[in-house]
Amino acid sequence: MQHSSPPYTPLCTDVWELLCPPFTHLRQLASSLPAATLLLVAAGPPCQDLTLGGPRQGRAGLCGQASSQFFAIPAIVAILRWLRPDVHTHVVVENAASMRDEFRRVIHLSLGIPYPSGHGQVIDAAGWSGFERKRLFISTLPPGNPPADIRPRPPPWEPGWTRRHRDALPPMQRSRGPNCRASTYQYRPQHLLYRQDEVWMMVPERSLYLEIRRRLPEALHASWTTLVQGFTDRTSEARAEAAAAWLADQGTTIGARTPNTAERARAMGLEHYYTLLRQAGLSDAEIYDAQGNAFDVDAFRTRTHHAIDAWLRHGEAPETTTPPLATIAREYQRLYDTLATNDELRPHLATHPGPTHVWANLCRLRHLLQPAQEGRPMP
Questions:
Q1: How far apart are CA 284 and CA 287, in angstroms?
Q2: Which secondary-structure segment (H or E) carries 92?
Q3: Range 310-344 burial, b when 16+ CB lie within 10 A, else e
Q4: In the beta sheet, which residues pair with residue 94?
Q5: pTM summary value
Q6: Whose CA is closest to 39, among 90, 81, 102?
Q7: How many whole angstroms separate alpha carbon 201 and alpha carbon 164?
Q8: Beta strands 38-43 and 88-96: pairing type?
Q9: Is the dihedral of CA 307, 308, 309, 312 positive or negative?
Q10: Which residues face 99 on adjacent strands?
């Protein structure tokens, strides 16, 4: 297969590389912008340490090894505003709706917006995509009415497959194993697609559990029962994983499976984009993971439409200010010191200190920006 160029330009493997002098990529972006334009920095830092569904119930938060990357965002904005003070630079951050309040407050503070306020909104894409996806959008842009043209998307399922339940499907997530395996609980009967044949279409919804059980090897019956009844801890989830793994491998054969990458792409309204990613050489597993991390385009529009429409119609861009990086660094250090008193949590916090550590980077950038703030040339 001949590979084409990806529909994006990878700039670095570590976001902090963007913030190494002489800020080559940021300078190139800044120099390409028209005078007094509106620049929207959209970012979705990893949510593993922020979501209540994560391995530590979101307690590591903004100091976790993954989610601490958030602090690169206000640093990037500070550099862009120094390079182009005439440009109206705004931010949209997307993350887990279940984030704890103390971390929401720090995100608001770091972006220079009040907390609590309407600048942080939880938006669920289930109303138009068929998949539940409650995500928190925090933006320096003022809130407003969503666009009027958002409509439910057509059913994305492959020909010959359908849902049997009306409720929205669980959120798309990254793969939990080989062959694009969904999370264990997503193999419950109400979350599966079924082949449109005389067997699966005739089975009452309440009996789907028994029909799948009949097709499972007898050794997996207890595992299937645990999966269907639900699990509250890792021990019971482990008992359910055998049945989920079997369905991941054999589900298409028996006529009951989870949605594939093509169906997920259509549900997101991004079929063409993921086709380009596949043509660029990404594997099915890489695309599956990318979908688990992606913004929903209409959720993004819901949060940003009002302000962008005002800009396009009238050239009105709301003013915003960046807190000093010293303030953000102190807030991060305070948060880190508090969390590090927890012996269980400490091993899972960001490396401290280290060459890519948040506090060290913010302090380094603060000193670099100080001459500019005093009217002297940058080093």
A1: 5
A2: strand 88-96
A3: bbeeeeebeebebeebebbbebbbebbeebeeeee
A4: 137
A5: 0.89
A6: 90
A7: 8
A8: parallel
A9: positive
A10: none
Rounded to whole angstroms, what are the CA distances from 59 to 329, 335, 348?
A: 20, 11, 10
> Are residues 304 and 91 in contact, defined by beta-carbon separation less than 8 angstroms?
no
Hey, is 169 helix, strand or coil? Answer: strand
Token couple for 111: 């972006």
Angle, to 10 degrees, between the axis of helix 221-229 and the axis of helix 208-215? 150
CA distance 81 to 40: 12
* CA dist., res. 281 & res. 184, Å (int): 28
- pLDDT by position in tens, the chain (length 379): 344 556 677 888 888 899 888 899 999 999 999 999 999 999 998 888 999 888 889 999 999 988 999 999 999 999 999 999 999 999 999 999 999 999 999 999 999 999 999 999 999 999 999 899 999 999 999 998 889 899 999 999 999 999 999 899 999 988 988 778 999 999 999 999 999 998 999 999 999 999 999 999 999 999 999 999 988 788 888 999 999 999 999 999 999 999 999 999 999 999 999 999 999 889 999 999 999 888 899 999 999 999 999 999 988 888 888 888 889 988 998 999 999 999 999 999 987 554 457 777 887 787 777 655 544 444 4
With CA atoms as reference, report the closest residue to 89 among 37, 44, 124.
37
At residue 80, the 3 state secondary structure works out as helix
| Separation CA 347–CA 368 (nearest Å) | 31
| Cα(139)–Cα(301) distance, integer angstroms | 12
- Hey, where are the domains in the chain? 15-112+320-373, 161-258
